[in-house]
Amino acid sequence: MLGWVISCHDDTAQELLDRLEKKYGPLPQCRAVNYWRGLSANMLSRMMCEALYQTDSGDGVIFLTDNAGAAPYRVASQMSHKHSGCEVIAGIHYALLEQMIPQRESMSSSVFRQHIVELGTPGVTSLWHQQQKNPPFVLLHDLYKP
């Protein structure tokens, strides 16, 4: 099963998780990380790292964030490069998460990423989708090595 780390500004992450659990019961491998004004990037990173390890059963973890480019998205992006099977999604909302609950058990992280972005278009994106628009910088001398 894919783990979920919901990370949003203020109390939104916990509110989303509480609302989902009120309707569906306890959601295993799912944690909320709230980002409050004034919280350091280091503390947010520590909180999200702990949530990552609490939710990862080996099948992958999906970071679900509210805004692309904001602190939760940036921290999740950095963490996803160090852990295989991690995907970062931005632009989430309750109705979208509700649609994706059944998919946690049957999809790989990359298929889940594609599906949630397609369902949430145009306001939902992923780190992978953003990287396709802006490929990583490559030094020219690296391209011509024998």
From TrEMBL:
Residue stretches spanning the membrane: none
Keywords carried by this UniProt record: Cytoplasm, Kinase, Phosphotransferase system, Sugar transport, Transferase, Transport
A Pfam family recorded for this sequence: EIIA-man
Swiss-Prot/TrEMBL GO biological process terms: phosphoenolpyruvate-dependent sugar phosphotransferase system
Domain PTS EIIA type-4: 1-124
First and last residue of the signal peptide: none
Main location per the UniProt record: cytoplasm
Recorded coiled-coil stretches: none
GO molecular function: kinase activity
Gene3D superfamilies xrefs: Phosphotransferase system, mannose-type IIA component
Keyword Kinase (UniProt): yes
GO CC list: cytoplasm; membrane
Keyword Transferase: yes
Localisation per UniProt entry: Cytoplasm
The protein's name in its UniProt record: PTS sugar transporter subunit IIA
